[in-house]
Write a structure and sequence with these properties.
- The protein is of the alpha+beta class.
- It has one domain.
- Helix content is 38%, strand content 14%.
- Strands 1-2-8-3 form a 4-stranded antiparallel sheet, sandwiched between helices.
- β4 and β5 form a beta hairpin.
Length: 289
């Protein structure tokens, strides 16, 4: 086995083992239930042309892997081709999806916990991977944990950020976008995403799609659109997602609800990610009829 492939397998194992065995993978509830099931892992090259395309589409503030890495390490001599993006999908568990599937306006408690305590675990996974890479002598950075990660407004897409975990996952062969902007993966759309950029050569994951909306039944076949009726505030239409309307539902509406009903601080929704054909898989045409 060559070094590149060996490193790729090593990183996959680090991520999968941590999700499978870490006690920090928890909803923080009385039963200490797991927040996420077994993850998916993908890779892309730091010089993949898609990252420059994201910048041209979203806005100049959108950072490439090289820009994030170079600024973080103050190391501007590194070449984009020497970097790799490591991306992962953390699928919600079956009980969490089942519970949220029943909701009509506010998130279920399990879903809210997965959004709050689960994302805390996702941050720990980011740090865990960076630490393991550093220990082996590889420089690495988790974009969402850097000062460079901030929210911005895209002239074309509205609420955006300097780094998108979902776009990194798309570049890394893990899924395509749906009508509600969620990423449809082999484990479905009910999930969370993470990534790390490292100065290491890895085998990029083949992208089994040619279009960024390929897995969405609405875009691919003109059918389904079930996420439209699932949205409690009508933020999703056949024209796409109204990010402003969605955000106003999250904060303060769901935030107040989570605090008053579940007893912890945080916001969540996820109704458009559950109760839809793409909840737990890449849907087939008949699923949307």
């Amino acid at each position: 086995m060559n070094q590149t492939l060996e490193n790729t397998k090593w990183i996959e194992t680090i991520i999968q083992d941590y999700v499978d065995t870490s006690p920090e993978n928890t909803l923080g509830n009385e039963n200490n239930d797991k927040a996420f099931s077994r993850p998916l892992v993908g890779f892309s090259n730091g010089d993949d042309p898609l990252y420059e395309e994201f910048k041209s589409h979203v806005g100049s503030f959108c950072l490439t892997p090289w820009e994030l890495f170079a600024v973080s390490y103050r190391e501007f001599s590194v070449k984009p081709k020497d970097l790799s993006v490591i991306s992962w999908i953390l699928p919600h568990t079956k009980p969490t999806k089942k519970e949220n599937r029943k909701e009509k306006y506010y998130p279920s408690e399990r879903w809210a916990r997965a959004r709050v305590f689960g994302e805390n675990f996702n941050d720990r996974l980011r740090k865990h991977l960076v630490e393991n890479l550093n220990y082996r002598g590889y420089s690495a950075v988790a974009p969402l944990l850097t000062p460079q990660f901030i929210m911005r407004i895209s002239p074309k897409y509205g609420y955006s950020s300097t780094w998108s975990e979902r776009h990194a996952a798309y570049a890394s062969g893990l899924g395509t976008f749906g009508l509600c902007d969620g990423l449809i993966t082999p484990a479905g759309k009910a999930m969370r995403v993470g990534s790390v950029i490292a100065q290491i050569r890895l085998s990029p994951t083949t992208r089994p799609y040619s279009n960024h909306n390929e897995y969405c039944l609405f875009f691919a076949h003109g059918i389904c659109g079930k996420c439209i009726s699932r949205c409690p505030v009508k933020a999703i239409t056949k024209n796409g997602k109204d990010k402003d309307r969605c955000y106003k539902h999250l904060i303060p509406d769901t935030q107040d609800y989570v605090t008053s009903h579940y007893g912890f601080n945080g916001h969540a929704c996820g109704l458009c990610q559950t109760g839809v054909p793409c909840e737990s898989k890449i849907p087939k045409k008949n699923d949307g009829l």
